[in-house]
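During the no-cost extension, the postdoctoral fellow (Dr. R.K.) reprocessed legacy sequence entries with the updated structure-token encoder. One reprocessed record is reproduced below for audit purposes.
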Amino acid sequence: MGALALLAIAAPAAAQLDPPAWTRPIPPVPLIGPITYVGTEGLAAYLIRTDAGAILIDATMEQNVPAIERNIVASGVPLRQVKLILVSHAHFDHAAGLAAMKRATGAKVVAGIRDAAALESGIPPGEVSYGVIRFPAVTVDRRVRDRDRVRLGNVTLRAVATPGHTPGCTTWTMQVADRGRRRDVVFPCSVTVAGNRLIGNRRYPGIVADFRASFARLAALKADVVLPAHPEGADVFARARSGTLVAPGLLRTMVVKARDDFDRELAKQTRAARPAP
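Re-encoded structure tokens follow.
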């Protein structure tokens, strides 16, 4: 892939990648403890209320920001009470709304250190099969490393570095009170290949090793509740309706599937990269 291709704005690719659910508004969905789903049908944004304001995880796509703002207000939180925006990773479907959401709320943006440059340039990291899809650049106010803690009022979240999908892919964890019990909640960063070049990725040469390390880290996390950036990955809405959000074995099941998919894709790309006989 040449330099021009790396810097192109892949608008046709973006159009093909956007399922209708990604931009379909839905009402806010209370989940567990102080956590409310405020994203669209297909892209998650999670609002966490604290006694010192609120935390938002991801802002999804730029066109979704007005709907997310309405959901935040409908959840009883004035926009200016959103104090922090935590980022899962620097891809357009989760990061393109950050700049607009930051302007609307005045919140500080917190992201994994290895994705900060991508967020501040608006150019995603690594090389993917669908080209480069830019997004509005945003200033990162705090760059977190593995095991860093982010506190607001009575709520603390821990950053778990799970690179692969992007170099700075960050899983966030916290505990909530649920009917007298403490529950471990995990907001896993994606571990899907999703078009990433696994062989010969010049902008991200360590991608394969990072993926493998992240599978192991995620599988070892204690997770009573799993809330991913794409809600269908954990059947978030169905579980919320049926009262089955607490599912201690779910994260490991998701990781095993993702690892199997990764191994198949790596084998496929390895075969494709071999010179013809």
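The two ends are 23 Å apart (CA to CA). The first strand starts at residue 29 and ends at 32. The remaining legacy entries will be reprocessed before the final report is submitted.
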